[in-house]
Amino acid sequence: MGQSSAMHPKALLDVCSELVRLSLKFDHPTDAIVAKFFRDNRGLGPRERATLSGTVYNVLRKKLLFDHFAPSGSGPKERRLAILGFYGPGDFLRSALTDQEKNWLDQCEKINVADLMERHRHNLPEWLVQPLKDQLGDEFWPLAESLNLGAGLDLRVNALNAKRADVQKELAQAGIKAVNTPYSPWGLRIAGKPTLNKFDGFIKGAFEVQDEGSQLLAMLLDAKRGEMVVDFCAGAGGKTLAIGACMRSTGRLYAFDTSPHRLDALKPRLARSGLSNVHPAAIAHERDDRVKRLAGKIDRVLVDAPCSGLGTLRRNPDLKWRQSLGLVAELAVTQAAILQSAARLLKPGGRLVYATCSMLVQENEAIAQAFSEANPDFAPLEAGEVLSGLKVADAAKLCSGGETGQRYLRLWPHRHHTDGFFAAVWQRA
Ligand SMILES: C[S@@+](CC[C@H](N)C(=O)[O-])C[C@H]1O[C@@H](n2cnc3c(N)ncnc32)[C@H](O)[C@@H]1O
Predict the structure, then answer these.
(1) Cα–Cα distance measured from residue 156 to residue 206, given in angstroms and rounded to the nearest whole number
(2) Where's the SAM-dependent MTase RsmB/NOP-type domain (predicted)?
(3) In this structure, are 347 and 396 located in the same domain?
(4) CATH number of the domain that residue 180 is part of
(5) pLDDT tens sequence across 67-97
(6) What's the CATH number where 45 sits?
(7) 270: domain range?
(8) Whose CA is nearest to atom 15 of ligand 1?
(9) Whose Cα sits closest to atom 25 in ligand 1?
């Protein structure tokens, strides 16, 4: 493929159509499809890459709206979708179109979307709509809109070796405006998506990219110096790093996961962070011998369970087309099993946190309630009170459920400008 600067609009639109075609197979996560496409087409420059990924993500976000417009056009469907979702200036796009396509696009742009049927406006699969309306009522529409806007960029400052104001200063020197996140004391929110991995602060482990919601989940565990802590589903360790910093790099923090590949991705992050208390360990499954050996010995356990990921639709809009009620039901069985097994690790008086990045009751409140009923020795704590105790502003507004309405942490993109998250907290008797 030729150099980016020389790429003609017609050629770029052709490449966009091809990437849209590959993405709509839904045989892999879209971020992996896009990354492979870029590896296979090394000649693409930064601007072409931005156009390509922007176009694919637009198509995924607004798929039902574009599916409604597409039949009136001509040519391959992926090309029509790429035209509708094209991420770039209108005149640049138009210079790539035939007269027939230009007329069709003009007609589409004249349509008032507000007059269309609901499904073309919310761009969500039907199976997801009613469960969200049941929870949110009229707020369903602000949520649906926020899911199509894309996400901002949050950083977590490493409290072990850096100050938020210093990171803010380093970013400001490079012309990047970062404001304090409203709830997390470690968070900075950045406008746009600048590349950050060349910054001294990043290389030295002063900050990591992490949604403010994830930071709040790590806060709920409230791990202390010198404790024994398990991050049961640590993955690439986003929350492990935050917890390790809370512990001031003392005590012992086990990072378990069934995926050695994900734990490998934790290692360079760990090296940057300066933490020396983290022990990554791949486990075969949640009943692994390693878990049995530690039973009753641990002060705090976080279960950041594998979930549908529907709370991250701003970043991963493909999930709404790749998930289904059937898959969610299967996940709920796994979530309950992992939570039950992880709970055995706790000492009397120890704290258990169950978390997901799902917005569905089946993966959240239903799992937490079933666990509470089956385990009377685990007393639910009010997430709102825990966060207020940690001086999180407006903690009550981040929570819902239970008698006080503060039982569970419940973050929503349209209310809190985070991904959608859930967390429940218990103390072992
Ligand atoms: C939501 S992700 C974790 C994200 C991670 N905590 C972070 O903050 O970056 C869930 C993780 O659970 C892991 N997992 C799946 N089944 C598991 C099991 N039975 N026991 C432990 N981990 C499991 C997956 O490999 C995945 O990495």
Answers:
(1) 9
(2) 143-429
(3) yes
(4) 3.30.70.1170
(5) 999 999 899 999 999 999 999 999 999 999 9
(6) 1.10.940
(7) 212-428
(8) 306
(9) 259
